């Protein structure tokens, strides 16, 4: 795998697919937490344990690469990545911000199309992550299970017949599964409903986080919604519950969009086209402003007000506008003011139609 190719492109293989319900759901993700039998969790690891985990990681890559139809995988040590490389991998949701700083023990197993990434020695020894476009949780789970089965043939997991897979955090014990959907809900935000809708989700046993997951703030009216615990539930239960709640959010967001179109169409058009005009002509733009304008323009495309720009192309801005990607593309670190100028230039070129 050519890592430079992965880092240079603002899109991932999964994001180029035209998944269902992409007007509201940007992506579906499945994460499986797995640990090795007889090896302390990463938080308690010592140097000698690293050899065992990395040897297991090498066997995993060999097993995945020898499996028919599984794609090509590479094992990348975090310590071998430059800071800007790590930043781009975080911005592309291929690893967590915490893992990016794990130079001592951390590694990443990455499939060339970026639909599968496995964090090695994050909170658990292995965190298998699969990604799909739109609302496709069952399909995303099937891919994760195929990867998990290939790994299970060459490593021995820490597993209890009574409680399931053993994990560092008690909330992941059991299936070890964390499903999530990334939703874009600008109409709910504009109509003042987003707070109550997301609060209701929290009361149903799910957790709502920002654009980059745990510890991140909401930006661009994008939220990640995921199950909170995995113990006592089957994989099917978790995915069915999350899919059902995601479907309700989709319906509520679409209903809010229809009410905006039917009730205050001119005001909505003004907001959308002002955002589009600024995006196409600005010479200086911060990352926060870019996300805010992206949200308005995406709403305009989904509402049929802006034509000729595919959602997949616009969604490249979620990576292109971020500080790490901008600096890596330039080949050097930049002051914020210089990044803002470069960001505006990149966005103008993207929106040339």
Quick structural gist:
With 353 residues, the protein is an alpha+beta fold. It folds into two domains: 3-253, Creatine Kinase, Chain A, domain 2, CATH 3.30.590.10; 264-350, no CATH class.
Care to describe what's here?
- This protein has helices spanning 3-8, 47-66, 83-91, 97-100, 137-152, 186-190, 194-202, 235-281, 287-302, 311-315, 317-320, 323-330, 336-350; strands at residues 25-34, 73-77, 107-111, 116-120, 126-133, 159-160, 164-165, 177-184, 206-209, 222-227.
- The strands form two sheets. Strands 2-3-4-5-1-8-10-9 form an eight-stranded antiparallel beta sheet, with helices on one face.
- It is built from 13 helices and ten strands.
- Helix content is 46%, strand content 16%.
- The protein is an alpha+beta fold and 353 residues long.
The helical percent reads 40-55%
Distance between the termini: 32 Å
What name does CATH use for the topology of the largest domain?
Creatine Kinase, Chain A, domain 2
Strand proportion: 15-25%
> How many strands appear in the DSSP assignment?
10
Secondary structure topology:
Blueprint: H1 3-8, E1 25-34, H2 47-66, E2 73-77, H3 83-91, H4 97-100, E3 107-111, E4 116-120, E5 126-133, H5 137-152, E6 159-160, E7 164-165, E8 177-184, H6 186-190, H7 194-202, E9 206-209, E10 222-227, H8 235-281, H9 287-302, H10 311-315, H11 317-320, H12 323-330, H13 336-350
Helix pairs in contact: 3-12, 8-9
List descriptors.
353 residues; alpha+beta; Creatine Kinase, Chain A, domain 2; 2 domains; eight-stranded antiparallel sheet; two-stranded antiparallel ribbon; 10 strands; 46% helix; globular
């Amino acid at each position: 795998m050519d890592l430079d190719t992965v880092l240079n492109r603002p899109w991932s293989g999964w994001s180029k697919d035209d998944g269902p319900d992409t007007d509201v759901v940007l992506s579906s993700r499945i994460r499986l937490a797995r640990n090795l039998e007889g090896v302390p969790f990463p938080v308690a690891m010592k140097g000698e344990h690293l050899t065992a985990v990395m040897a297991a990681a090498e066997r995993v890559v060999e097993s995945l690469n020898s499996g028919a139809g599984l794609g090509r995988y590479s094992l990348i040590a975090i310590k071998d990545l430059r800071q800007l490389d790590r930043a781009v991998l975080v911005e592309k949701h291929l690893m967590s911000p915490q893992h990016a700083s794990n130079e001592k023990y951390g590694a990443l197993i990455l499939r060339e199309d970026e639909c599968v990434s496995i964090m090695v020695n994050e909170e658990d020894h292995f965190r298998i992550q699969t990604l799909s476009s739109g609302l496709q949780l069952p399909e995303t789970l099937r891919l994760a299970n195929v990867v998990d089965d290939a790994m299970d043939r060459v490593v021995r997991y820490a597993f209890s017949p009574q409680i399931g897979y053993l994990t560092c955090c008690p909330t992941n014990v059991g299936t070890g599964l964390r499903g999530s959907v990334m939703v874009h809900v600008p109409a709910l935000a504009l109509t003042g409903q987003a707070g109550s809708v997301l609060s209701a989700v929290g009361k149903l046993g799910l957790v709502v986080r920002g654009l980059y997951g745990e510890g991140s703030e909401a930006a661009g009216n994008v939220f990640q919604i995921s199950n909170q615990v995995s113990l006592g539930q089957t994989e099917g239960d978790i995915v069915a519950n999350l899919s059902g709640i995601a479907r309700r959010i989709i319906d509520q967001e679409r209903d809010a969009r229809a009410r905006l179109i039917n009730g205050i169409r001119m005001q909505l058009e003004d907001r959308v086209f002002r955002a589009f005009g600024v995006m196409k002509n600005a010479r200086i733009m911060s990352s926060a402003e870019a996300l805010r304008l992206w949200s308005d323009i995406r709403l305009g495309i989904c509402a049929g007000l802006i034509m000729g720009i595919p959602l997949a192309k616009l969604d490249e801005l979620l990576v292109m506008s971020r500080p790490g990607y901008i600096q890596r593309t330039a080949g050097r670190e930049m002051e914020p003011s210089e990044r803002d100028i470069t960001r505006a230039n990149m966005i103008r070129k993207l929106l040339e139609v």
